[in-house]
Amino acid sequence: MKNEDLIKKTSFIILFSFFLLIVATTYFINENLVFSQHNKYKDPESVNQENAAALHKVEIKHQGPNFSNFDIFGIKKIYPTKKNGFEWFMNNYDPESDPYLHNYKSIVRNEDGSYSIGERSRMGVYSKDGIDYPKRNMETYNFTELSKKGYWYKPTDWKNVEITGEYLYKKGEGPGITHYARSEDHSLINNGCGGSSYKLKIHFDGTSSISKEQTHPKPWKIQMNKGPFGKLDKDWFRFKGIMYNLPDGTVKLESWLDPFLNNTWIKIAEYQDKGGWGKDGKKCHGKEDQIITWGSPTATFRWDNVLVDFRNLSVREIQPPII
Fold first, then answer.
1. In this predicted model, what pLDDT tens digit does every residue of 116-153 receive, in sequence order?
2. What is the pLDDT of residue 226?
3. How many CB atoms neighbour CB 300 within 10 A?
4. N or C end of the chain: smaller count of CB under 10 Å?
């Protein structure tokens, strides 16, 4: 009888252990299936007022800083970093110690760990080899030559980039925040040609705009009047300005917004510069509607006449999508 009882107990333990193994395996598979579906990236269409209300339901959850679709701050990447491409991430502990961050007077740390810089920002981030580049003294300011060369300063200049920041409006009359690149100097020196740039802007009223500046200080602006999430003057939000060259010689520009800080990224504006935009290129020995295809030794975070708190800034060299 003792042997029979022992056999029964052993059989029960084995069967129960097998049952637990099946349950655990099923749970693991289901959990990973949910995870993969939540993080499956789809390029949404530009949104409008009618479908904006449901957008916050599509959440891509952060599963750890080493997950390749997220940066070190847990922010979703729209496009992957280029293989061996340069990435810059803000030093949230001591930003003023960073040799890549430049063009500011002082950065003040707030109680919540974010930072402020004052009512005016032209805070820039050097490219990989751009530290202390000879501003206003480039090899050429001829747009035809630059379009062949592909960069202002060095081949490692910022060209195809994803510029990201988290912001909180505090006060002021300034309209919004601009991310831009592909310029080396915004002044009238060199006939203003150093100011060539694409600028992607988010407005605190919820709208956005995309600008092309062939020569400083004249922008060619496209205003996007739809503001699918209303005003952005109460809570933290994330904004991305993205630009990249396409094989046909055109340039794609995209603005993305995460209004809830939950990696719900929505493309709020886009434009493809195929030419026919701008009339100032001849001033710099290029085509009248010169497309700005060259890289720059700096990328910039700009605002005017407004107090803004910021954190988790980044600039990444991206791998453009195949269109």
1. 999 999 999 999 999 999 999 999 999 999 999 999 99
2. 79
3. 24
4. N
Length in residues, the chain: 323
143, 197 Cβ separation under 8 angstroms: no
Which one-letter DSSP state was computed for residue 66? T
6-18: pLDDT as tens digits: 555 555 555 555 5
pLDDT reading at 104 higher than 60: yes
Q: Where are the domains of the chain?
A: 1-38, 50-317
Which of 58-67, 228-237, 292-301, 303-312 is predicted least confidently?
58-67
Question: Could you give the CA distance from residue 275 to residue 296 in angstroms, rounded to a whole number?
Answer: 20
CATH architecture, domain defined by 50-317: Sandwich (2.60)
How far, in Å, CA of 161 to CA of 167, rounded?
A: 19
The CA distance from 98 to 91, in Å, is: 7
- Whether the CB-CB separation of 155 and 139 falls below 8 Å is answered with no
* CA 94 from centre of chain: 21
pLDDT reading at 319 higher than 80: yes
- By DSSP bridging, strand 108-109 and strand 115-116 are antiparallel
Residue 116, token pair as written in the block: 């402020």
What span, in angstroms and rounded, lies between the C-alpha atoms of 249 and 109? 42
165 bridge partner residues: 239
Measured between alpha carbons, how far is 179 from 106 in angstroms, rounded to an integer?
20
CA atoms of 174 and 120, how far apart (whole Å)? 9
The CA distance from 97 to 134, in Å, is 21
CA pair distance 147, 249, nearest whole angstrom: 10
Q: Write out the two tokens for 269.
A: 């504006």
Tell me the two tokens of residue 311.
């954190």
What are the tokens at 65?
């800083």
Q: Cα–Cα distance between 316 and 58 in angstroms, integer? A: 25
In the structure encoding, which two tokens stand for residue 188, read together?
């009238």
Grade residue 169 by pLDDT with cuts at 50, 70 and 90.
very high
Residue 186 CA to residue 61 CA, distance in Å, equals: 39
Euclidean distance between CA atoms 237 and 230, whole angstroms? 12
